[in-house]
Amino acid sequence: MDIAALIRNVPDFPKPGIQFKDITTLLQNGPAFKYIIDGWKARYADKNVDAIVGADARGFIFGAALAYAMELPFIPVRKKGKLPGETIVQEYELEYGTSSVEVHIDAVKPGDRVVLIDDLLATGGTIGAIVDLMRMLKAEIVEAAFVVELPPLKGREKLKGVPVHTLVEFMVD
Predict the structure, then answer these.
(1) Using one digit for the tens of pLDDT, what is the confidence trace for 6-19?
(2) Is 91 labeled as catalytic in the residue annotation?
(3) Which of 54, 73, 131, 167 has a CA between 20 and 30 Å from the CA of residue 139?
(4) 154/135 Cα distance (integer angstroms)
(5) CA distance 41 to 35
């Protein structure tokens, strides 16, 4: 299936010069969404995965569906201030300034094998912070999986040795 053809390019969003990769058009295609989840389910079926970790917000879409399909717990990593229980927080660099993500301290146990899911790997800031959170909780990261990767933005470099799996790569202008 040609996943790339189902992803809309939106020029100058959210600001001039950005070529935004819009996955909403992909999500509107039920067979394509199923294809992605079924493919990841098969990929991780024999990896002894204990939980699926999804990045706020679009990682929740794919991560929750994968966790459901694999009958595994889903662990949401949220933007700071969105989780009600006791959390740990990791700050990361943005193009201009910083941001933070958090996870409940009891979300995973030491030694749990987790797969990290997000829709897009660009600069790697968010997912790099999630890698740090999982390491703080002493989880073992099996792999980080993305629908889309923008290789010129070098996001893999922030993943500190974590295996990366992507379905589609786009070169950016």
Answers:
(1) 999 999 998 898 88
(2) no
(3) 167
(4) 21
(5) 10
